[in-house]
Specification:
Integral membrane protein, elongated, 3 helices, single chain, transmembrane helix, mainly alpha, Integral_mb_put
């Protein structure tokens, strides 16, 4: 896993797709699902979805954007 992440940090295009497209989209989908679960009566699981995976995807997006900026500054 560490080798894969080290290889991923060397490709700015992959970091662009992850940071600006994939992770924010996944965060949005999970947040909407959690919101609908809260409205549907499954409050505990909905709140868990709103906070835990959504925050993980947002943190991953910021990580990818930061590493992309660092990679582009080096070049």
């Amino acid at each position: 896993m560490k080798k894969y992440l080290a290889d991923l940090k060397q490709h700015s295009d992959a970091l662009f797709v992850l940071g600006y497209m994939l992770f924010p989209l996944l965060a949005l989908v999970v947040a909407v699902l959690g919101f609908f679960m809260v409205l549907g009566g499954h409050k505990i699981f909905g709140v868990i979805l709103l906070f835990v995976p959504t925050q993980v995807f947002l943190y991953a997006a910021f990580w990818a954007i930061k590493n992309r900026k660092l990679l582009l500054e080096e070049k």
